[in-house]
Design brief:
Strand content: 25-35%
CATH topology of the largest domain: TIM Barrel
Oligomer: single chain
Number of domains: 2
Radius of gyration: 24 Å
Largest sheet: 8 strands, parallel, barrel
Number of helices: 11
Helix content: 25-40%
Strand order of the largest sheet: 1-2-3-4-5-6-19-20
Distance between the termini: 42 Å
CATH architecture of the largest domain: Alpha-Beta Barrel
């Protein structure tokens, strides 16, 4: 392997790289690179297929093989000659790459990618995958350090974390806006997801403060595993009716039921319950009449809970509760984001987070790239009820392109599109791009 450090000797002086975001107008492809019998990326064929596809950028994943860094240095000049920009895509601490030169030292990665971008100005940005789930390691302080190291070498190089639509919140982005240059957001269910994320990333709406309970993908659970927050409230004597109202949402709209359930409890009794299956990802209002559970009592304990009715093997979900309003109790309203006020309990691998109200609403605007699944099994996983046909994949990508044209995102990238000549998924996405170019020359 050619040591990347040698590039610092060979690199050119800083070039007058564009200062605008590389996300603007981006139509890109990611991963699923074509390889030869020797295991190296087949650079001529990959570049030829990217040109045939009609993209202007490619996200080069450094993860599959120890030779990926060598292949990247071969790919960059070929892509530059073909007019294709390149984003280097790195895996996070939860998926350490095999045999790469800098491992999980992202400060060093930032430095060396910046050096490489001086030699090849079509290297415009770099990405870290699954950023939200790794944010305890990839803190704002650490990312600031990586950005300073990269910008000392090439101020024009941009950094984008990869996140998922349910993870986009005002609180999180407020913390990271000073140290990132934009966001890649994966797997929209439709235009609504894209538009909502755009409003948050542009500071136009503020995510509700509340409690977030999440269960990770690729993780087993047992029946009875749960996450719960609870607190005591005072019952007002003589009220005609006692109610508890709140807002709730989850990010699963598929049909698989009987596993994760959302609950409201009063003194341990379930007074409201809803499966995560079905519906949509919006917040919905709930009002529960709890009169029969509180009359004659001076105080009661109310609890919000997510519980597994059956164990799961691979069923991630993100659930939020917000804006509790109480009639016949003191206090009359509760903030689900007020961590000190709530008792916490859990069993199993559920994760609990409190989301306070952001303090900088409207004070940031981040460029934003939408990623859509383009491989059959991934598309079916992300779009429950679909068959993952080429027509579905192409239509979904065209939807995202249309949202870009409408100003609701800055760029669009496929996830793992097959690129073999004659592949029906490749042809479907190529047709979607061609149709989009015809509409928006």
């Amino acid at each position: 392997m050619t040591p990347w450090l040698m590039l610092s000797v060979l690199a050119l002086a800083p070039l007058s790289a564009p200062t605008s975001s590389p996300a603007v107008g981006l139509v890109a492809d990611y991963d699923n690179e074509l390889r030869g019998a020797d295991g190296h990326v087949d650079v001529p064929l990959l570049v030829s297929q990217l040109k045939a596809l009609g993209v202007n950028s490619y996200f080069f994943l450094v993860w599959h093989a120890p030779t990926d860094c060598d292949d990247l240095q071969v790919f960059l000049p070929a892509a530059q000659k073909a007019g294709i920009d390149v984003w280097v895509y790195l895996c996070p601490p939860s998926e350490p790459p095999p045999g790469t030169p800098f491992g999980l030292d992202f400060v060093r990665w930032g430095e060396e990618i910046a050096r490489l971008s001086l030699k090849f100005p079509n290297l415009r940005a770099w990405v870290i995958d699954d950023f939200y789930a790794n944010s305890t390691t990839l803190t704002p302080t650490y990312i600031a350090q990586a950005q300073r190291a990269a910008h000392k070498i090439n101020p024009a190089l941009k950094f984008f974390p990869l996140m998922y639509f349910p993870e986009i919140s005002s609180v999180f982005m407020e913390a990271y806006t000073p140290v990132v240059d934009g966001v890649v957001v994966a797997y929209p269910s439709g235009p609504r997801d894209i538009r909502r994320a755009a409003r948050i990333l542009r500071g136009e709406i503020v995510e509700r403060p509340g409690t977030e309970m999440s269960f990770p993908w690729n993780t087993p659970s047992q029946s009875g595993d749960f996450d719960e927050v609870s607190r005591e409230v005072t019952v007002t004597p003589g009220a005609a009716r006692y109610t508890i109202s709140f807002e709730q949402s989850d990010d699963y709209a598929g049909p698989t039921a009987g596993y994760h359930c959302k609950q409201l409890l009063v003194d341990g009794a379930v007074v409201w319950e809803q499966d995560v299956a079905g519906g949509d990802t919006d917040f919905h209002s709930v009002t529960a009449d709890v009169s029969d559970f509180v009359r004659g009592k001076k105080t009661v304990t109310i609890a919000l809970r997510c519980i597994d009715k059956q164990g799961v093997g691979n069923f991630g979900v993100d659930i939020r509760f917000s804006d509790l309003r109480l009639h016949g109790f003191t206090p009359q309203s509760l903030s689900a984001g007020d961590k000190p006020a709530w008792q916490q309990a859990s069993q199993g691998k559920w994760n609990l987070a409190f989301q306070p109200r952001p303090s900088a609403a409207g004070q940031f605007r981040l460029p934003y790239v939408v990623m859509t699944a383009a491989e059959q099994s991934e598309y079916k996983l992300r779009m429950p009820g679909s068959q993952g046909t080429p027509a579905e994949v192409g239509s979904h990508f065209k939807m995202a392109l249309d949202e870009m044209a409408a100003g609701n995102c800055d760029g669009v990238v496929t996830y793992c599109l097959p690129k073999q000549p004659g592949d029906p998924y490749f042809d479907a996405v190529r047709s979607a791009i061609a149709g989009f170019r015809k509409q928006h020359p």
